[in-house]
């Protein structure tokens, strides 16, 4: 059985972690049981692996908002005024208080793999995640992957520049790979912001749970943590995940195509142009997993990508599902985010210069303080 650590940093990370715990808890429950107020007290997380979850935040209210994550798994890092969206403050707070976090993780024993989930653009998660991974890597040799949520592009200059710096720090550091999810790309989920967040969070949660299950499952054809590591080593250190579950009878080829299309992906990419390596896991009743169909579709992907690991999980009576982990050699969407970030940094710099000029103006006014006009 795999030992898995999942850390959720900051508000976005906390909420996605809570969504993962919610889905793990509700497995096998009826909708009524799952939505019942007592669900969280009487249910247990039903992970296939030994999964430990830790939520970290400077904002106590974000931690209190969590409904499916145990109190002992929530770490409040005290900082009087939060960190705003200021990563410089965030990094200072992490440096001062990292002992609390590292001790908590240490007490949980050893792991085979870890995931750290965060937004790229806020304050706490964005500034804590790169140094946290660096600290953990000093004393552990298990792979650590960051699951990073990119901002809606209209959220403003500070978020955009935070995202750009945060991703660069992660890539320059010892993180074993970055799995991208993009709020902007996924916003078509619709509804108000909260509904969109909930929808996106549960999409990410579902994909991660499926991935963990399949790394720890007795498959007809096996993929394992070793294969996942190899896939994540490919490409430019960036990856994303596609997933699709049929809600009616559907050929497996269509299920795979849907998982690799905007319906299934967490990040905007043309898989056939940008992907570097891939791992596909298919699940469902045997009647959907015909070898000829599966091979035909996977060969198409292999032709474009180079190497595709594949796994099949037979589940009697289940409609077909497909999950695909893709590492990316290039990412046009990320390049345009960086162009936006460069502009954002320019705008913020201009604003600072203007404030400086305003101060000079104020001191010009002050030069005549206490004086009277002479005629
Ligand atoms: P932190 O608490 O200081 O780390 O900041 P946040 O996690 O709130 O980071 C702000 C960014 O995260 C913005 O781009 C938000 O759109 C995004 N965000 C906040 N909450 C959620 C959420 O629940 N789900 C998703 N997908 N994004 C979120």
TrEMBL record:
GO function term, MF aspect, one: GTP binding
All residue ranges annotated as the Tubulin/FtsZ GTPase domain in the record: 3-219
Keyword Repeat included in the entry's annotation: no
Protein's GO biological process: cell division; regulation of cell shape
Keyword Membrane among UniProt keywords: no
Tree of life domain: Archaea
GO CC terms: cell division site; cytoplasm
UniProtKB keywords: Cell shape, Cytoplasm, GTP-binding, Nucleotide-binding
Alphabetical list of InterPro entries matching this protein: FtsZ/CetZ, Tubulin/FtsZ_GTPase_sf, Tubulin_FtsZ_GTPase
SUPFAM superfamilies: Tubulin nucleotide-binding domain-like (SSF52490)
A Pfam entry, by short name: Tubulin
Name the UniProt record assigns to this protein: Tubulin-like protein CetZ
